[in-house]
Design a protein that fits this description.
Blueprint (H helix, E strand, L loop, with lengths): L8 H22 L5 H8 L3 H4 L1 H24 L1 H18 L6 H15 L3 H11 L2 H32 L2 H22 L13 H12 L2 H29 L7 H5 L5 H18 L1 H18 L5 H29 L4 H61 L7 H7 L2
Helix pairs in contact: 1-5, 1-8, 1-9, 4-5, 4-6, 4-16, 5-6, 5-7, 5-9, 7-16, 8-9, 8-13, 8-15, 11-15, 11-16, 13-14, 13-15, 14-15, 14-16
Length: 412
């Protein structure tokens, strides 16, 4: 049986399922992001520690990602993803029942670990079941679901917190995610092109070793770490800035800033078209440049300029993420779930580490320090993207020849 093509009924069904799955993934992972100032006040902890309910989840997600990918190679793509969504949703219902900060951190840690089963496997499923010509569009729509889920979770959580409490907000999200998990389970077609592997510990390490020897994949993993670190840092601490002097906005007002995620949804879906026209390498460099420009604009004290900067920054990030993630799926020749897992492991490690380190910059240097950290991460990401372009150009050059551009740069 051939792979699924864009425009077919099966393609639309797969997109519906993964849009719902992406929504659940990001709404449960990032629903606490606008609550960081609330946690800081309620539990009497500084900004860096208040970021831990998010950072610990993303760290656990990153650590478990590699194992989740291996499980899917052995037990099937769909069963692992369905179990991940349902358990994650149940833990969202348990979160409001926690009564202390350490207990909250414990539940969020477990939730992050369980959640790994969805993103680690989604990219592999799509790369196996969807035709290469339609993969970028499918990946873009899945990431668009991530964007909408992240935006909705942040706005909903902040608004309900202002009206009732953060516990009511998180509990309601749990109920919604249970329903979406049923939609995913009923809508997603079983894998057709997946070939089950016998579970072997040696398989985990040999496949990981193979991917880590690929210089192109290493560059993509580095880009995921750096860009996501900058992205999450931006959204973690913009709330602290707008809740404080001289703005003093309410949580609900600040949450509407996350509407710029709609631009991210659009840019991720459009990245595939742009990459087909310009090439993945040029699309990636352009998207990273947008991130740097957007972050710099947020230094302006005027709120409209700040929103504009965040919109540009967000569009750049989601376009870069859609381009890089689809590139991983097509570049990995074998063990695609492992390759995707490594990418997402890097993605969430960047989120966890930089998201917490940004709190130190906020406490010591204010918003200018946060932007300096973000721009540094984005700049290094641009350098890695340039290295990736050279790697690809070298691979595509005729055997024994160096690409002309590389020869000029090396002085030959």
């Amino acid at each position: 049986m051939g792979k699924v093509e864009k425009g077919s009924r099966t393609f639309r069904t797969i997109n519906l399922a993964f849009f719902a799955a992406g929504f659940v993934t990001f709404v449960t992972l990032y629903d606490v992001q606008p609550l960081l100032p609330v946690f800081s006040k309620e539990y009497g902890v500084p900004a860096a520690l208040a970021s831990l309910p998010l950072s610990l989840s993303t760290a656990a997600l990153a650590a478990t990602m590699l194992v989740a990918g291996t499980f899917s190679e052995c037990f099937g793509r769909k069963p692992v993803m369905v179990a991940s969504l349902f358990i994650t949703s149940i833990l969202a219902l348990i979160t409001p029942l926690t009564q202390s900060f350490p207990t909250l951190l414990g539940v969020r840690l477990i939730q992050g670990a369980v959640l790994a089963g969805l993103p680690a496997v989604a990219m592999a499923y799509l790369s196996e079941e969807v035709a290469p010509s339609s993969l970028a569009a499918a990946m873009g729509l899945y990431i668009g679901g991530n964007a909408v889920g992240g935006m909705t979770g942040r706005i909903f959580t902040a608004s309900v917190t202002d009206l009732f409490s953060w516990r009511v907000a998180i509990g309601a999200i749990g109920v919604i995610c249970i329903g979406l998990s049923f939609i995913f389970a009923r809508s997603l077609p079983p894998s057709v092109h997946f070939r089950r592997q016998t579970f072997k510990v040696s398989y985990l390490f040999t496949s990981l070793y193979r991917h880590l020897r690929d210089p192109g994949l290493l560059c993509l993993y580095g880009i995921a770490f750096l860009l996501t670190g900058g992205f999450v840092t931006m959204y973690n601490y913009i709330t602290f800035r707008l809740l404080g002097t001289p703005y003093h906005f309410s949580h609900t007002t600040v949450s509407w800033l996350f509407l710029v995620y709609l631009i991210g949804s659009w840019s991720s879906a459009s990245a595939g078209k742009v990459s087909r026209r310009l090439g993945r390498d040029k699309t990636l460099v352009f998207a990273i440049t947008l991130m740097g420009v957007g972050a710099t604009i947020t230094l302006a004290p005027e709120v409209p300029a700040m929103v504009c900067g965040m919109a540009v920054f967000t569009a750049g990030f989601f376009a870069a993420h859609a381009t890089a993630s689809s590139w991983v799926g097509s570049r990995a020749a074998t063990a695609k779930a492992q390759a995707s897992s490594l990418y997402l492991c890097s993605y969430y490690l960047g989120s966890s580490i930089s998201g917490t380190v940004g709190g130190v910059f906020w406490s010591t240097e204010g918003w200018s320090g946060v932007v300096a950290l973000i721009c540094s991460l984005v700049a290094v990401g641009g350098i890695v993207a340039a290295v990736l372009s050279r790697v690809v150009a070298r691979e595509e050059a005729p055997h024994g020849e160096e690409p002309a551009g590389l020869a000029l740069r090396s002085g030959n």
